[in-house]
Design brief:
With about 90 residues, the chain is mainly alpha-helical. The protein has a domain of about 60 residues. It is about 80% helix and about 0% strand. It contains 3 helices and no strands. The chain is flat, with a radius of gyration of 22 Å. The chain starts with a helix and ends with a helix. The model has no long low-confidence stretch (mean pLDDT about 80).
């Protein structure tokens, strides 16, 4: 089997597995509800975080002055981690 044929066979196999999984999810209401919940979660969390990170990178690449000094300029993941830690401390103090 040539490399091209192997790739075609793998693509056909993956596509058929994806179609079969989609059929199962669509035909079973509990799985359909779970899929919609996961899609809403992804759209509500990941997409805004990605857009915020892209906006931050664009701001930095534009050459404008930074809002925070370099030592305080946190990455998005670090900022979220600190906010989670702060929320955990507030909840545990109550």
């Amino acid at each position: 089997m040539t490399d091209t044929n192997a790739r075609i066979a793998a693509n056909v196999l993956l596509a058929s597995a994806g179609v079969a999984a989609a059929y199962i999810v669509v035909t079973r209401p509990p799985l359909r509800r779970l899929a919609f919940r996961m899609a809403r979660l992804w759209l509500g969390v990941c997409v805004p975080a990605y857009l915020a990170d892209q906006a931050r990178q664009a701001w930095l690449e534009s050459g404008r002055s930074r809002i925070l000094p370099q030592s305080q300029n946190l990455g998005l993941r670090t900022w979220f981690a600190r906010m989670r830690m702060r929320d955990d401390l507030i909840i545990s103090e109550e």
